[in-house]
Amino acid sequence: MATLPLEVVPRAADTVRWSAYAGLAPAVAFVLLLLALPLAATAYLSLSPNVLIQFEGLGLDNFRYLLSKAYYVDVLVRTLRTSFLVTLLALLLGYPAAYVLKGLSERVGSTMIVGLTFPILTGPLVVVLGWMILLSDGGPLLGPLVRRGLLAPLRLLGTETAIVIGLVHFTLPFVILTVLSSLKQIPNDLIEAAHSLGAGPVRMFFRIVWPLSLPGVISASIIAFSLAASAYVSPHYLGGATQLTLTTLVAQFILATFNSELAAAAAVVLLVMMVVIIFAFTKLMSRLVR
Amino acid sequence: MIALHFFSRLYLGLVYLFVIGPMLIIIIDSLNSATSFPSPFETVTLRWYVAVLRHDEFLTAMRVSAIVAALAATIATVLGFLAAYALVRYPLRGENAIATFLLAPILVPQIVIGLAMLQLLALLGVQLTLAGLVAVHTIYVMPFTLRLVMTGLARFDFGLEEAALSLGAGRLRAVRYVTLPLVRTALIAGFVFAFILSFVNLPLSLFLTNPSTATLPIVMFAYMESRIDPLVAAVASMVVVAAVAITVTVERAFRLRLLG
User: Fold this and answer.
1) How far is CA B189 from the centre of its chain?
2) Do B197 and A121 touch (CB under 8 A)?
3) Which DSSP letter does residue A104 get?
4) Which residue of A has its CA nearest to B139?
């Protein structure tokens, strides 16, 4: 055995490692050059003077400007308020749905899950077109009631309520899928043990199922919150120009007022807000799971 | 207990009605012969679909979207496979950090990805071309292909690849004839999923198109700014039917779910 060419072993390992990094390189380079670098350029731009706000060198004046106008502060607050409300409503609607789905047979359950992916794969633009029809006072849902005088016109389109409805719909499938996968990880033995020890369904739910599904609930919250805060299509069509959120504000700065610096500043505000809140959710998760 | 059972099923049914409702109403309205929109259902007609097939702008946009989606999905699948293979196959220092970095683009709002690319193109003094558009779409779909392929590879028995190597195949040959065929399902799912997500995406393209590179969602967006009518409902319902048909086919053919 002493004749084994031992020095070959580390060299082979080196080759393997080299080829592994070579495999990673294209994807990493792609994200670095085409996302990280452009984001850095955007951050730089957000610190630069522009036609509206003039100053020397780099500074926080664009942010100071945005945060000094009640109009833009409202946009930030609206984004936060709708995103939290959407997260809460999607959880309230989605958790029971995931719980019922879990109780279905494997075959029926997996067919039902495919149905949940339809709106995701159809894309928000088409789905929001559907909501514009459904929420309009002349549409098939409210139209018959409004025409017979049973209901005063609600004028839902162009309100924050419409944005929330659209976004709850948008985030719900993700919430159901995330909660469902955490429910499926709860060992059946635990549930059977509780059952045979005489726990009723209510007690079993609150003592076993709910605590064990908490990590899923937290990740579902993170997903719902970030999807709601980043959504563009629902706020644009269902909220319109009077109910701007940070995403539609960015688009307005680029497409209507042609101020890239303020667009960049609004984008940075959105990113910072999301990072802070996702970080808080993650902290909460680690505390709950421990 | 029976009442509970009944109400839980009823609840699930209502949730599904909510989830599917907007798509159903689009299909129904695209078949409505009434010209004003939205209006009560009159008779079934296919005239709006015929009108779409004669509408050059929508047809061109569908072609552009298909090209962008095919390029983005191809690049994302290739890069995703290479990265997933490296991450799953070898123990690497910092592999969790690298995986997180590669999956992070999901968390960046798409409108911000588009804005950032617009700044990059402006910095480089480059015109809005198809390349910039394909780049952002690739960035956005790559995390999905990466994750699907990583899941596929996690179930793959690398002993098979070792066997091929010890029987004298080169590494590339072993990957080509042993590994790739066995993770084919994950690759196909990744490609199809990436293609659909790119095809239907609006916010990524919002700042990056010119008249010759306007994707289908961009043309629909511009159209919907001025009016909502059965014509755009017909285009939308074609998207619904295509997305549902592709999803169900992939699910049936490969026993594979694109999500969840």
Assistant:
1) 10
2) yes
3) S
4) A31
Nearest residue on chain A to B136, alpha-carbon basis: A34
The span from the CA of B12 to the CA of B246, in Å, is 25
Q: CATH number for the B56-254 domain, one of 1.20.1600.10, 3.40.630.30, 1.10.3720.10, 1.25.40.10? A: 1.10.3720.10
How far is the C-alpha of B135 from the C-alpha of B198, rounded, in Å? 11
Q: Is the pLDDT of residue B2 over 80?
A: no
Q: Which residues in chain A touch residue B87, judged by CB atoms under 8 angstroms apart? A: 24
Give yes or no: residues A73 and A199 share one domain: yes
Show the domain range for A40: 8-46
A 102-131 near B (Cβ less than 8 A): 103, 110, 112-131
Strand partners, B32: B44
Asked if B92 lies within 8 A of A96 by C-beta distance, the reply is: no
| Pairwise CB contact (< 8 Å): A23 & B83 | yes
Q: What is the pLDDT of residues A77-109, one digit of tens each?
A: 999 999 999 999 999 999 999 999 998 888 888
Q: Choose among A234, A224, A262: nearest CA to B203.
A: A234
pLDDT in tens, A119-150: 999 999 999 999 999 998 877 888 778 888 77
Residues recorded for chain A:
290
Structure tokens at B42: 């009159």
Q: Are residues A223 and A116 in the same domain?
A: yes
Which strand (E) or helix (H) includes residue B135?
helix B130-154
More confident position, A3 or A87: A87
pLDDT tens string B153-173:
888 888 888 888 888 887 788
